[in-house]
Design goal:
Layout: H1 12-21, H2 27-49, H3 54-72, H4 74-84, H5 106-123, H6 134-151, H7 157-181, H8 185-212, H9 240-258, H10 264-284, H11 287-303, H12 305-324, H13 326-330, H14 333-339, H15 343-361, H16 372-379, H17 395-427, H18 437-453, H19 463-497
Length: 499
Amino acid sequence: MGKATTSEGLTRGERWLVRAFHVGKVHVGKAILLAALYAAVGWVVARAVFSERWTWVATGTALGTLLVLLSLFPLAALLGWQVISPYAPFFGLDLHLGAGVPDLSLDRLAIGSLVALVLGQAVLGRRRLAPFTRTDALILVFCLGYGVSGSISYLGPVQAYQALFDAVYTPILVYFVAKNLVQSRRDLDWVIGALAIIATYLAVLAIREQITGEALFVPMGRSTRYTEHIRRVASLLGNPAFIAIILSMVLPLFLARVVLAASTWKRGLGVLLAGVWVLAVYMTFVRAGWVALFLSLLVLAVLWPRFRRPFLLVLALATVIVVVNWVAITQSPVYAERLAFTKSIDYRAEGMNLAWRVFLRYPLVGVGFANFGTIAAREFGWQPERWVLPSPHNSYLYIAVSGGLLALIPYLLMFGSILWDGWALYRRQRRSAPVDGPVLAAFLGAVVAYLAFIATLEVEASKVTNMLFYLIVGSVLGMHQWQERKAGAVRHVREERGL
């Protein structure tokens, strides 16, 4: 007979516990030592939390969690970072290391780690990189062309390139990482889920601030009033315009999944949540945000027949409500102080006109990154707000003024290529099984909304908005590229076998 063991007569769960904790031998000593180590670490962390170095503990905890997720679930690390990134400045996740030393921010650590992981796995042969496309080439040319503007910036090369990296290159690197990590529809569903979380807390913050009059997580120097009766949402992102465009980009992608949900309760809950987002966009009182939301849903309705009928019904109902209540609407502060308010439009028109004149003076390489406000104030005497340098309030003109044609041409071609890639994939949905028609229709709606919206402000001012836009682009285009590659490999194998 074989020798009896301590695991005889035990259930599978009990045997697992015996193996896991090594009960009954010298491993008990190791367990005690490990427990003592955890207790010591907990004591050190507790002391640090209640000391002046609590921000280091917060950053270390966030970075440690990020590194663990990176090693186990890279996509979860990317999405988790996107979800918590807006809160980083308010919870000590960005460390300021003093003059002359680049700040150790969560965003810099996260994107550096993700890029290193993807490239490292590719070098070691553990990952195939996504195919290099025309859009990728144009993005690279834009980065190089716009990089020239940093060398002539009044900020100085070090500060200018740090700002460029944060505002421009980090979001573009998010595109690169997403394109390589999002390879299946399930991956894309995770992305849409993370975007829904972000959209929900932004919507809740906007609605809550308008109802209570209390702003949460307000960046320094942000105003909270448009007019006497209209509040300017300042929670988290500091500008209601950025909340409006994020919700406008995420909504069509969310609806593309909600409408096709298998159960009625999921569809009902999804529609209810979408309604909350629409209400939040309205309560930002940003006219460009209203237009962007309408454009995103209009494109989705035009390209996706299943969404067209409910969209037209809701649009007809909204039109009837507006017509019936038109007199009351025209007497409300929203109409008088926002819709009919032209001062901000005049200001933008003046800024765009001045930016065009500056661009014509320096058409090739522009005046340098972040130099327009200084030049407008010094050379043209235009500074409507005393404590704030003026801006053209148009991302296209801002790129043209800062980087000249060297940056503007690839910038425009880059967006044109993104639209063309999405449209080409959408056109192939009947001939190619891997193509997700509703998602591509929603993707085109999101891109159109973004491109229309950035004509009204400098989107570089919101890294979060840009990161989410490039996350959407990289995820949707990347997923379809990976799926078509797999489908092509299957066809090749079948052809070789004569099937």
